[in-house]
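[Meeting: bench + compute handoff]

Bench side (C.D.) handed over the final construct sequence. Compute side (W.E.) agreed to return the predicted structure before the next meeting so the bench team could plan truncations. Sequence as handed over:
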Amino acid sequence: MALCLANSLVSRRGFVPYDQLVRYKWWFQHGYMSSTGRCFDIGAATAQSLDEFIHRQKRLAKKYDISLKNIDYISDPNLLGQFQVYCSTSGVAGNGALMRLAPVPLFFYKHPKEAIEFSGYSGQITHGDIKAYDACRYYGALICATLNGYTKDKLLDKDFYKEHKEWFGDKQLCEEIKKIAEGSYKKNGGYQDGIRGKGYIVNALEAALWAFWSDKDSFENGVLAAVNLGDDTDTTAAIYGQLAGAYYGYRKLPKKWVEHVYAKKFILNLSKWIAYEGKNWKQTDVILPSHSPSLDKPVSNDSETLYAQPDPELDSMLLSQQSRKCRNGSHGNQNLPDPGNVTTSETFNQASKPNSDAS
């Protein structure tokens, strides 16, 4: 799902929640961006939200006489602004909202307020509880600060949230996430002191930050610590890896692990595209919905504005081999071109940090 989110940010050159859900749907139905060519290990909350999204798409298609073939490509801002992309409900606070987060702060890190706002929205579309929303906002802020050169001590300072409230606007963190921001995870005993890598997003955030706090400046140590907590091991490690990866950088990842990563070149080039498009992002490249589920406002019937095919120069490269991927299980999207004049370390401006090779 992180690759789906990254592809959406790059292809749409900004934050378009509808397009993000479309790509999650492709993963759900066809294995888009999956290393195996099929969807596996999807959480119940995410599956329910995507089922609801598909249902709403069909209603929209019927209402405005849009073919189901084209419904994934609508681009009319008026129509997208009306579509209710928040497909979950309050009380849904699983860790799936947090495990895919990193592309958002990577893309928007030069704009901290937007990075944090969009981090929250990125989780809220599938996990509707305020705790999921705030966990994503807080973790997005940490990743954003990391890419802006903050030291580990500053990131984990108990006053980080208090000193950066302007980044969070007028929406304060809920009490459960605020306690974590104030250092509830700093427990030397780890598991013995109650740290748990469970599916509940509050537990997952606390566990990932405990692993980062206690990793002795080693990505490998942190991953193993997260996994050894048990329970939802892969998700806890994935959440840890987002912040730790941004902080320690690509060159400090264990080579014995990196060499086995599937579609590594594709992921590296995609990360460069995130850096490039994020650097050139403008606030006009955002289509956020209203909170009203109403679809009654008139929209254009002009097919040129109602929907559009993917960007011919980039998105088609991400989608062109989708059917072959579904047939033979190959990734099918490894031909993303290198932006060429963009290097990840240069674009993320990490020169001021001693660990300045983040990708």
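W.E. noted at the follow-up: The longest helix spans residues 44-64. C.D. will use this when planning the next construct.
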